[in-house]
């Protein structure tokens, strides 16, 4: 069974997560410089059979666009062009950063470690993916 990748797109840094072959468990696979996202995805796809890419879609609580929504929409179009054989799905990412921060607190990370924004981005991608997997 093919795996699924999730992307938590950011202005500077982008978090990535991937499913297990049975599409039951999401695992964070790190963060990449947003400028290198496509190259990084190509590398991940060389090593893994993937048929879907989830892209976190940022919105305000009332459903309006955020300051980064347009960049995510542009990324979505680029992913569709570069990976035409993959299903590219926009997924609501509201609250994922807050949930990621709470996961860090609950896991007992020290305050200094919780300030690691890259870790928050990776956990956010994992939350996006696990939410999707839970509804399969």
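Sequence proposed for the structure above (136 residues):
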């Amino acid at each position: 069974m093919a795996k699924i990748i999730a992307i938590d797109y950011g202005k500077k840094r982008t978090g990535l997560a991937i499913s297990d072959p049975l599409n039951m468990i999401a695992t964070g696979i790190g963060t990449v410089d947003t400028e290198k996202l496509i190259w990084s995805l190509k590398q991940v796809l060389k090593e893994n059979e993937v048929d879907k890419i989830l892209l976190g879609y940022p919105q305000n609580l009332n459903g309006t666009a955020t300051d980064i929504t347009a960049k995510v929409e542009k990324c979505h179009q680029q992913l569709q062009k570069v990976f035409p054989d993959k299903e590219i799905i926009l997924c609501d990412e509201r609250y994922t950063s807050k949930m990621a921060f709470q996961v860090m607190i609950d896991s007992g990370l020290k305050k200094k470690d919780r300030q690691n924004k890259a870790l928050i981005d990776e956990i956010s991608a994992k939350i996006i993916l696990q939410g999707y997997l839970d509804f399969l």
